[in-house]
Predict the structure.
Amino acid sequence: MSTNLDTIKNKKIAINVGGKEHSIYFDLNAFAELEETYGDLNGMLAALQGGSIKAVRKFLYIGFMHENEKLTEKEVGGWFTMADIPEVIKSIEEAMCLSLPPVEVEESKDPNEQSPVNPE
């Protein structure tokens, strides 16, 4: 599997916090920080999608570190309320997707392999 690094967007996702715009961004340093906590990409995604408020705060904190390395997790956590969580998770997921190369799906080359049959 080859990865074309030109396909990684590295785009910052804007998020409004108390009337001020910040940007969530996951660079190599951010992924390294997340890896220390969650082990691997699957662990990261499981923590985020599992509904852990602590994980959401950690992702936000790490996603904002490019703006100010002196931020603390508690400071970032104070910027948001529970009502913000669905939109925040959406922004984190979008920023992560834009920071990772696309997954290449290999098509089967076996002419005898059949497509799954729809049971309906």
Observations:
- The two ends are 35 Å apart (CA to CA).
